[in-house]
Amino acid sequence: MSWSIPKPMESITNYNVMMLHGALGADKGIKEDNSLVEANRDTSFRGKGHIGKYDSENRLTYWLSKNAFEEPDSMRNVHDSYLYSWRSFTNPANSSKNNAVELGDRTWNKDKKFGGRRALVEEAQEVKAIITQEVVTDSGIRIDTTEKGQTALEIIRQNPDRYRQLASRYILIGHSMGGVVSREYVQGNFYNGDVDKIITLDSPHEGTGALNMIVAKNVSEDFGENIKKNILKSVPNTVSSAAFFSLVLTGDFGNLISGVVGLACYLALDEIGDAAATLASPQKYFSTDSLVHYVDPKKHGFQTIDSLNRRPYIADSLPMFRIMAGRNGMTFTDPQDHLAAFYYMGDRATCFCWQIHLLS
């Protein structure tokens, strides 16, 4: 006679918990390089888009490791932790649909443009894959060999009993656009049915115009020309024609020069202020970045967030969602409408209400 208590889904003994970063400029990604080593052997390069370090107390990865998963210090690294936050997307400014391919499509790097890197769901497995097995040499000597990383993962996959011991299912934690990427994966046509839970943190599920605003603030290359044009436009409006010619006719060139120089400085500082704001901004986006088009709530059709929200919601085939939003965050188009959001998906206009947990 026996009895058992089922573990909650949050039991992490057989889960990879993956953290996906939000929107970033293209420069934060990984450039094409066919010499990049596989994740298991990469000890230094994570890119600039990972959302936490394993050894920094002020980062989210460390906090979750310590407080949520109660991992000892010896586990707080990519090879041992339940969390996987190893690298950024190769192009964070790509559309969420394209980045979802990099998240879960096993054929993502089939051309080896990024060397030994693989889809993120595979990397989360391979960094923890290790196997020791007995090998018989040509001389008949039996020795134990240990394999790690991709080689170990391929061997383990050939043995169902061993594969079941390796975490092969996922809980996705997506910040900002990372949450939308998670949805694009599980609602896409290359989904492997391997995700049991998705947690999104302030993700723009209805789109946002924030990237358009950043693009509009980017200073163009004709920085100097803009200053000149603005000065020529503003002088007649700032100094009346009568006052301007009065200064010329009376020979009061000192005040005339002072006025023009002062006006020029004012306008130049305004331009420089825009430039400084752009340079100081942590991200730079351009109109050519596919993410700008994708996340625009006014865009429709292929490669837009609108197309994602119009897909049928098939509850039986999708994981559990928990959508968490900060007050006045970007989870919804209207930041004041933060109690519930309704999506009309598919031709049947099925109304689906997301569960919201408000954070102060």
TrEMBL record:
One Pfam family linked to the record: PGAP1
UniProt xrefs under Gene3D superfamilies: alpha/beta hydrolase
Residue stretches making up the GPI inositol-deacylase PGAP1-like alpha/beta domain: 162-219
MF term (GO), any: hydrolase activity, acting on ester bonds
SUPFAM superfamilies: alpha/beta-Hydrolases
Protein's UniProt name: PGAP1-like protein
Organism for this UniProt entry: Hallerella succinigenes
UniProt lineage: Bacteria, Pseudomonadati, Fibrobacterota, Fibrobacteria, Fibrobacterales
